[in-house]
Design a protein that fits this description.
Oligomer: single chain
Number of strands: 21
Number of domains: 3
Structural class: alpha/beta
Shape: globular
Length: 454
């Protein structure tokens, strides 16, 4: 029987990150992957990012006329666009190839793995005894039990990149982040897009942020059918159709499922691993409850891929006692403007909510940004508990806020920022926390004394 220090099941961003670090530390690492690795098949996340970027360029060209710059019609060459998507994927592939990890010294097993004992993994007819193991199998797109769905072609996050032609009318089932991102991207590239969501788009997000995003998507031409549930799917000549619960029939050329993701656990045999109910429940260190040898991280726990390496290094590789400081919760919708939420959501009973519109900044005025919003959640001690952004460039602006979670909001109010910048809205929102001070009688009394000083 083979021996290994670290068994990693799944070579996604989380698994690769831990495997790279562990082998660099001199540990024996065995990485199990049953699917393709970098360069062997397109990476859906890279291609989606390139698709969003292409849509953004087209939108900028069309919007230039608002500033007096005529561009005329903005044609989209789908074949050239597909070539760009392939190039972007090829450029990113070397970071995750099998050859790269084998050159590092990682033992790579290209087969499905399962637990054969609480301290053993079996794959490809062999067995490995491990000291510690990581489950990083990620998550798969949810496919609903929708009548008629099995009779029609549909796409998911993992297959949308296979489109050989631009959709004439893309029906998107689900108003999640991925669904909204693709709706905007394809609309900008000349398709029509209809999003069908049983509740409201961006479920779980700050209602003010979600409403603002909905307005901006509708302005670009995306049709949002909120509060509508699909009852049946049908094939039609030249495309697909969805019959909604209220009797409405919506027809399109293509169907995209965007109903979220579910953890990939099939075939792992978690009961044999020592987890009686066969499910994953991790503590703050990401170690699974009920075992001292197995951790889980990334998409299989519903966490962003590649974001858990620091926690795993501390608790799994170095076995540092105590609970590591948890990073702030993160929600990201990569539309333009992006919707980003960090930390504690707004609206808590013991939190003060501060808001400032991007339109009320110098850069917002200069660039004609008439919507967008910053929200800050402040606790009783005046510390930043959470924040939200609906802003162009919000993904980059979020870094400033992430570092300030748990710190006095006054630090944001006094931040040194380039002028003009959209980040000024963050500082202006933070200043609102200090606004009541000017009406405080004691503060006004001190100001009266100070004015007499030389």
């Amino acid at each position: 029987m083979a021996e290994t220090d670290i068994a990693v099941i799944g070579a996604g961003a989380t698994g690769r990150g831990l495997a790279s670090l562990a082998v660099a530390l001199g540990l024996r690492v065995t990485l199990f992957e049953r699917g393709p690795m970098g360069g062997e098949a397109p990476d859906p996340e890279v291609i989606q990012a390139a698709l969003r970027a292409a849509g953004a360029r087209a939108a900028l060209a069309r919007d230039a006329a608002r500033m007096g710059i005529g561009t005329g019609e903005v044609p989209v060459d789908w074949l050239a666009l597909r070539s760009h998507l392939a190039d972007a994927d090829a450029d990113a592939a070397p970071e995750s190839t099998a050859a790269r990890f084998e050159a590092m010294g990682v033992e790579l097993v290209r087969a499905a793995a399962r637990f054969s004992a609480p301290d053993r993994v079996a794959a490809a007819g062999r067995e490995w005894r491990f000291r510690r193991a990581l489950i990083a199998t990620g998550a798969a797109p949810v496919v609903p039990a929708l009548e008629g769905l099995e009779t029609i072609p549909y796409m998911t996050e993992e297959t949308v990149h296979r489109l050989e032609e631009r959709p004439e009318h893309l029906l998107i089932l689900g108003g999640t982040g991925f669904g909204l991102e693709m709706a905007q991207a394809f609309t900008r590239l000349g398709s029509r897009a209809t999003v069908i969501e049983p509740a409201r788009i961006a479920p779980g997000a700050d209602p003010a942020m979600a409403e603002g995003l909905a307005r901006m998507l509708r302005r670009e031409g995306v049709v949002l059918a909120e509060g509508q549930e699909a009852a049946r799917a049908e094939r039609r000549e030249g495309g697909v159709a969805l019959l909604l619960a209220d009797g409405t029939r919506v027809e399109g050329s293509h169907l995209l499922l965007a109903l979220g993701r579910a953890p990939r656990l099939a075939g792992l045999d978690l009961v044999t691993a020592g987890l009686p109910d066969g499910s994953l429940a991790a503590d703050e260190t990401l170690r699974l409850r009920g075992t001292r040898r197995i951790w889980a991280a990334g998409g299989v726990l519903g966490r962003p891929g590649g974001s858990d390496t620091g926690i795993l290094a501390r608790s799994m590789l170095f076995r540092v006692p105590g609970t590591p400081a948890a990073p702030p919760a993160l929600r990201v919708i990569r539309t333009e403007p992006a919707l980003v939420e960090l930390g504690v959501p707004t609206g808590g009973a013991e939190l003060e909510t501060l808001r400032w519109p991007l339109a009320d900044t110098a850069r917002g005025s200069a660039e004609g940004i008439d919507s967008g919003l910053v929200t800050l959640s402040v606790d009783r001690r005046g510390r930043l508990a959470g924040a939200g952004l609906l802003a162009p460039g919000g993904l980059e602006m979020a870094g400033m806020l992430s570092l300030c979670i748990g710190r006095p909001v006054s630090e944001l109010a006094g931040a040194t920022l380039p002028h003009p910048s959209l980040s000024a809205a963050i500082a202006r929102a933070a200043l609102e926390h200090q606004a009541p001070m000017v009406t405080n009688p004691r503060i006004r009394w001190l100001a009266g004394i100070a004015k007499r000083l030389p």
